[in-house]
Amino acid sequence: MTAARARDRAWFAILAASFGFGLAVSWHRWGNPLIDTGREMNQPLRLLGGEMLYSDIRHIYGPLSPWLHAALFHMFGPSLTVLYTDGIISAIIILALVYWLGRQIMSPAAAGAATLNVMWLCVFKPAGVYILPYSYNSLHGTALGLITLAILTAALKRGRETTHPISMMPFALAGIAAGLTILAKTEMGLATQAAGVTAAVLVGYPDLRRGATFAAVFVGSAACLALGVYAIIAARVGWSTLVSDNWLLLYNMAPELTFYNRRISGFDHPLRSIGRMLIAIVKLGILGAIVGAVSTLIGGARPARGQPDGAHDAEGRESARGTVSRRWIVLGAAVLLLVVMAVTTGLDWDKGPYLAMPLLLAGVLLMLAGRLRAEAGGNRSVQTRILIVYAVYALASLARMVLHVRSGGAYGSFLLPMSVVIFTYLWVGPFAELFPQVRARHAARTIALSLLVAVAVVNAGVLAYRYRTRNTVVVATSRGTIIAEPDVGQAWNEALVYINEYTRPGDAVAVMPEGTSLDFLSGRRNPLREEITTPGFLDAAGETRAIRQLQEADTRLVLITNRTTAEFGPAVFGRDYSLRLMGWIEAHYTPCAIFGPVKDPHLQIGDRPFFIRAYCAREMASTTHLFRLLHAALTTSQPPAAYRHRHGTSRRGPLSRGISAPSAG
């Protein structure tokens, strides 16, 4: 026991050092100021200003995260530091829970390897980074889901290891945690429900009535909390707004969002998705064959039946040599087949091993169900029950992307942690136990863990390099700092300068289809109900309302970001969707600036590099145009910007700040 604790402490130190390294190399480089993060910054601030979630502010997730951040903004002031701190603390909690949950079924080394992979596959993955995630609801849902799982695991251990009947309290506490998970992210809450009901049945097994009682306590606690909170909200905003307008029950989701979800889940091309899963299974089988061949070589040939090690006769030695030869042949064939698979299908992470997880988890559940029936109590039975709950939770978590479980991307970061734990267990548990020799089993575990740690180390190196070389432009404001990719960072800095020069704090500045972090960072307000206007968020009635809100807020400046949205179907704002809204903007506003590395007025959404096009209200554009011409004439001996633009002079002046001359209305 003392040795295990020493190994635990050693892994704590390794994980802490790795996490510190990750923070250092990614410092302020978390998230993307363009996609989704504006919602995470602005919604809590709008709540502080008296607006109401789901009615004044469109919100498609549970209320937990924006309410929490509104409270934190009230206590500490609105800043990125508050959001970053939440992300760091939540990440530490998740990693600690992953290690603890892993330790219930594996050695310290295996739990540490799993946690290390979660750290570099999930926590610091740029597309799904935890520190400034695309959705704090997903981050909090992940943490609360793992807390629920930890409480259920403790209940399973207590229910089988003591002679005293287990009380209802653990299931009531787990139900509260599950209810909070629902209030963070609905589908993550459903995964906790599946795990909780499974754990309740297993604690009572084979007494189904007892298990049903525990399940009722768990589900009742979760339902009372979640439904109670939503009932309070509905009393203020109305059930129609809560359920229908925000897709809470998913039944009336916009076609564009349905298209997106089908693509994310792999159901857009199910046969192709299943083919990818089968290819991943084959790759894992090949890798298993290689590890197995090497392990048996290390383990050595078995002695003849009835003879001690080293007492082989001539026939036994000849048989051993034949066995070794066959193993080398198997190893060579496996390596050759792996090379062929790599050439034909690729070894990139999008086609990586976790594509196979739904099939692996289904197989694990079948294996564990058989083991449960064969076991008659004891500690091994406890581990079987824990594994079943883990597998149910992991499989239910993957429902959002069940046919296309990507290792990268935004969703995998929050849905994969327990799959990583199960994946590690399969290598050090069932796979290693296939070998009859102790040395071969030990070799198989060592090789598998070495490969897993190596993958984490390589991921760490690749991500560190990407963070330091791709995110290089500092966007520094009074509300915090974010370091972005060069074209986005330049466009953001130029847009913030323009906003600060030509609007006042508190003025309405609309940013579409995404990028309202500009409002948060500049101290302006978003006049629209939506923080995001990508396809599916504004139907015909929504466009009419958006136009009215722009008018009522006396919006003088509209910014259109170069954000393509092909993942939803329609790709270009104002051309493929929101045509009426864009037509109204063009009728009442005039292009007055372009922000980004290239100032070509003919740039279209989807062109490279990134840009933002500003539209000023016509009277504002005229005033701004005259002001800037006068300012240029008084402060520089160079011709005014508009003159240089028209006559092609190459001398630099105000345009060097990245602000193009506005057109007169």
3D architecture notes:
The protein is mainly α and 665 residues long. It has helices at residues 2-26, 37-48, 64-76, 80-103, 108-123, 136-161, 169-184, 186-204, 208-237, 239-245, 255-265, 270-299, 314-345, 357-374, 379-397, 409-415, 417-431, 438-470, 486-502, 517-522, 540-552, 579-588, 618-635, 641-647; strands at 473-477, 480-484, 509-512, 557-561, 589-595, 612-617. It has a 4-stranded mixed β-sheet with strand order 3-4-6-5. α6 packs antiparallel against α15 (379-397), α8 runs antiparallel to α9 (208-237) and α21 (540-552) runs parallel beside α22. The longest helix has 33 residues, at 438-470. The termini are far apart.
Compact summary:
It contains 24 helices and six strands. It has 665 residues and is mainly α.
Number of helices: 24
Largest sheet entry: 4 strands, mixed
Q: Could you name the ranges where pLDDT drops below 50 across 5 or more consecutive residues?
A: 303-313, 629-665
Which percent range fits the helix content? 55-70%
Q: Which structural category fits the helices and strands? A: mainly alpha
Determine the oligomeric state from the structure: single chain
| Integer-rounded radius of gyration | 29 Å
Strand order of the largest sheet: 3-4-6-5
* Beta-strand percentage range: under 5%
> How many β-strand runs?
6
- N-C termini distance: 79 Å
Order of helices and strands: HHHHHHHHHHHHHHHHHHEEHEHHEHEEHH
Mean pLDDT: 86
Overall 3D shape: globular
